[in-house]
Amino acid sequence: MREAPDSLLSLSGVHTHIGEYHILQGVDLEVPRGGITVLLGRNGAGKTTTLRTIMGLWKASQGRVVFAGQDIAGKATPDIARRGIAYVPESMAVFSDLTVRENLHLAAISGPMDTARLEWIFGFFPALKKFWNYPAGNLSGGQKQMVAIARAIVEQRQLLLVDEPTKGLAPAIVQNLIEAFRQVKENSTTILLVEQNFNFVRQLGDTVAVMDDGRIVHTGTMAELAADDALQQRLLGLSLAAHQ
Ligand SMILES: Nc1ncnc2c1ncn2[C@@H]1O[C@H](COP(=O)(O)OP(=O)(O)OP(=O)(O)O)[C@@H](O)[C@H]1O
What sequence ranges are listed for the domain ABC transporter (predicted)? Predict the structure, then answer.
């Protein structure tokens, strides 16, 4: 495994059990500060479990999860969130009965929403401005995903964890998300992105880690993986072909 010069998040030897199942089996993962790290791997490899373990939603049974220099393994989820990590789960967590405005208002935990920051978000998610006073439940899947991501970034966070944001979305919306994640990164938020859609993440990722059977089996730069068809085939196999 390569040494990252400046990791904002670092997992070493992380094991997670879910009930009787041993899911993460010694995960070593470095997330360089200021970049977009993409976590790839087939269904069931352990990507979601990795994000949930970072957030403290599953407790690591062994190993270290170091965020901004402090071991957060074993800490409670609200504590981990307050340290500056936001999480967008795969299920697009929005309050359907509440308006877009109310959804974002509830996510702004440290005070009133910052209007300049909202305008910045509307710049890459204009639909949110358009449907500001509509119930989030009435929006399309792509627009709900925008609400979920906007909730996570309505305040400045150090690290954004996002689980398969493009799942089921139309190509035009995927382009929106590419622009959004680029802007979030430019605004000094580090991103750890779980995806199966390689054509999406090859345009975004700086570094890449590939998981299989609860372990990281490859780490490197996205540029290197994107340029190497044989490596893609070997590491991603059918999951890559399925998205071409
Ligand atoms: N609540 C649970 N109880 C038992 N096993 C679980 C639970 N959640 C996940 N698993 C198992 O853990 C393994 C890893 O699942 P995980 O969701 O982390 O994979 P993933 O890489 O995110 O896959 P996907 O792309 O399908 O979401 C799978 O074998 C899954 O069946």
Answer: 9-238
- Ligand 1 nearest-atom number relative to CA 214: 14
Does the 1-84+188-244 domain belong in CATH 2.60.120.10? Answer: no
Query: What are the domain boundaries of the chain?
Result: 1-84+188-244
Write the ipTM: 0.92
Q: Which residues line the pocket of ligand 1, CB cutoff 6 A?
A: 18-19, 21, 23, 41, 43-49
- Which atom number of ligand 1 is nearest to the Cα of residue 41? 21
Please tell me the residue having the least CA distance from ligand 1 atom 3. 18
Q: What is the pTM of this model?
A: 0.91
User: For every residue of the chain, which 3-state class applies, written as one string?
Assistant: CCCCCCEEEEEEEEEEEECCEEEEEEEEEEEECCCEEEEEECCCCCHHHHHHHHCCCCCEEEEEEEECCEECCCCCHHHHHHCCEEEECCCCCCCCCCEHHHHHHHHCCCCCCCHHHHHHHHHHCHHHHHCCCCEHHHCCHHHHHHHHHHHHHCCCCCEEEEECCCCCCCHHHHHHHHHHHHHHHHCCCEEEEECCCHHHHCCCCCEEEEEECCEEEEEEEHHHHHCCHHHHHHHHHHHHHCCC
